[in-house]
């Protein structure tokens, strides 16, 4: 989700954040492969800006999109829809999906003086 | 962060999400205690609605607030400001803070039929 353990880099706001929090069932067969596939697939959506993800018990994925049409295109992607359905049938005990408009953002990077 | 490994329960939108993503330095002495203390402290802020958090490499904490004044009150809390400063000095390699207005939300809970 965060290749090389880097934080997602996003443009100046405004843009959108899709916040997906979830709890898994014990039946996670196929889940990791599907998650990896979805992560590759979302990159093909025009207006997809990046994502951050972590799981320890609760899983959180925050995906960033340029605008609402980009979010709709991802939601309506047939393979994504199919995988979501499998998620509800098999992998997810519970989830929450929140669509939020990012209004402002601040970053910090440690300055390295060698 | 998520007591009993439950997802945060939030009211109907609109409300705000403060999305904090971070990478830690190797020097995490005191970090867990400070994170726990901040989690207790934020609960005292009127308008704080809950939070979800996970870390595996990248850390993500999404805190939910009723409105902007609640976010400002948390930002300006003296002990929080002090801990943020220590974070920049010691614990954080990098972070991003995004303030986003949640416009809509959907939930799923597995129905249990025994």
Automatic annotation (TrEMBL), chains A, B:
Domain of life: Bacteria
Domain named ABM: residues: 27-85
Matches recorded under Pfam families: ABM (PF03992)
The protein's name in its UniProt record: ABM domain-containing protein
Underlying gene: yqjZ
């Amino acid at each position: 989700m965060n290749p090389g353990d880097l934080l997602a880099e996003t443009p100046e706001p405004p843009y959108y954040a899709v916040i997906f929090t979830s709890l898994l069932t014990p039946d996670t067969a196929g889940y990791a492969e599907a998650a990896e596939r979805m992560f590759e697939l979302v990159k093909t959506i025009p207006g997809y800006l990046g994502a951050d993800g972590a799981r320890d018990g609760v899983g959180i994925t925050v995906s960033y999109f340029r605008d609402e049409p980009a979010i709709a295109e991802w939601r309506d992607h047939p393979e994504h829809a199919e995988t979501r359905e499998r998620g509800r049938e098999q992998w997810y005990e519970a989830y929450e999906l929140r669509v939020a408009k990012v209004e402002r953002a601040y970053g910090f990077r440690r300055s390295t003086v060698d």
